[in-house]
Design goal:
Elements: H1 3-13, E1 18-28, E2 31-40, E3 45-51, H2 53-63, E4 68-78, E5 81-90, E6 96-101, H3 103-115, E7 118-128, E8 131-140, H4 153-163
Length: 172
């Protein structure tokens, strides 16, 4: 949906206790469009749509001291520039983020954070100037986690089919 349509639906659902559970953006005909999933809960949330990194980071830094943490983070590329869409929930939990890192940089950070008990909350991959980049958010979480990056569908599906009988389910 275009932003105006998404916002209209969001405003209609908000009073009934529906909040964003998933939110993705992509470019269609040169415009950012959104796909959303809502779930019922009365948690407070704040959102920002299609911001440049500078504007996103300024808003993030302003919300952090008030206890707002990333619930959903999505990145798409418009005219060669990453655009950030975010939803925050209020909690004073710790989180770590990276923005626009190469896969090798991300992979080293992931391995170090994994050992320290951090798990992925959000990950987005995108291409700018022909370079694959990742933006990710971690939080402390005792659950086990498996992740794969940049796999071809056949390889991904084979792994998925191996994990399914063991009780593993996709989280994101």
């Amino acid at each position: 949906w275009k932003y105006a349509d998404l916002k209209s639906k969001y405003d209609a659902l908000w009073p009934e206790g529906w909040r964003l559970a998933q939110l993705q953006s992509h470019i269609e005909y040169g415009e950012v469009v959104y796909t959303a999933v809502w779930k019922q809960t009365n948690v407070a949330e704040k959102q920002a749509y299609g911001l440049t990194f500078k504007d996103y980071k300024a808003l993030y830094d302003a919300l952090w001291p008030e206890g707002w943490r990333i619930h959903l983070l999505d990145v798409c590329v418009l005219d060669g520039e990453p655009r950030y869409t975010a939803v925050w929930h209020q909690t004073y939990a710790s989180e770590i983020q990276i923005y626009g890192w190469s896969y090798p940089e991300y992979n080293v950070e992931y391995a170090a954070l994994w050992l320290a008990g951090w798990r992925l909350k959000s990950i987005n991959s995108f291409v700018v100037d022909g370079k694959f980049q990742s933006t990710a958010v971690w939080n402390i979480n005792p659950e086990e986690e498996l992740q794969v990056c940049a796999w071809k569908y056949d390889d991904f599906k084979r792994y998925y089919d191996e994990l399914w009988p063991e009780g593993w389910r996709l989280a994101m």
